[in-house]
Description:
44% helix; alpha/beta; globular
Amino acid sequence: MFLSNRHSDYHMPLDPADAETLSVKAAEDVERHLLHRANHAPTPLRTLPILAAELRVGAVHIKDEGFRLGLGSFKALGGSYAVIRLVREDASRRLGRAVDIADLRSADVRAIAAGMTFACATDGNHGRSVAQGAQLVGAKAAIFVHGGVSDERVAAIARFGAEIIRVAGTYDDSVAEAAQVAAARNWIVVSDTSWPGYERIPGLVMQGYTAMVREALRQLPRPPTHVFVQAGVGGVAAAVAGHLALVLGDRRPTFVVVEPARAACLLETARAGRPVKIEHGEPTVMAMLECYEPSLVAWRVLRRVADAFMTVDEDDAVGAMRRLARPAGSDPAIVAGESGGVGLAGLVCAAADPGSRVALGLDEASRVFLINTEGATDPERYADLVGMPPDDVATTTKGADA
Length: 402
């Protein structure tokens, strides 16, 4: 399914609040925060010339977030950043002085953090980020997980000392339960999706993702002409598209939002022209993207700066995982989890369809940027789908990486 953006806000400037959230100044604050993280390092940019030739485009570059902050996912940038920002802000109010990132180890700030509990719902990766952020500052974390979250991913969250609260139903059910319980217990919800009256904290989560875009723009030899980014509720897609639009202006790339066909809440929202909650159906293998209602903040951004919305099928996603694990020729191998290669799956589908190529202006001169949003965050599941364990996937660069 492919749908061009026809919203009346398309090509309009970002809402002022979103422009501030996703601005260069805000991204610089995130990067300054990262400099104080012990295991921070820019994630690699992979270049795949053989794949580009196969798809009849000029270049394919993939930002590999499987190496991000020890969590193996871009989500490490969002939830933990929001938690740390909120602790700094609360400590500043209570201590009557500005609390910088360098002050987080001080006894008075940690005493304040110890009385704070951060809650969220998760498919796995966001919960790990919130739990890690809470552990870093000495706060508590309560993570709500629905029935579709694997035991491996739950255990990965629990390793950061978080309380795990299981919820029957879908991700959206866990979001509702987290909000209800947190309100009753005076916990702070750090969600990566937003709803009426709850926008600032999801905005901080999205702000955290802008650091990934800043890194990529420094690593790329030239700005991309096309970007394909996967979406669940839309947070990372909106952060990437919005920041690129602000930085590149009229030179911004054509931006395509890619979703599972079984959980395409943004495509259906774009079709309706307003936020749509879709029916829960058969689960998708793209577990991190199995969301049935869009983030309001993300939609507000995407309706202005996304050029198209498309879906991919289950086999497309698994095929992208396998293609990245077993590259052709000199292309580097990449470990991409079930949701990590969905942007590539979208590019492959679009490149093979003459109508989509024309609609998007894809040709032999196109420079395509993708994000591998997660590595093998569930190694057993990865091995089942790819046919080999992630540790056996070669990561040789052969001079093709930045």
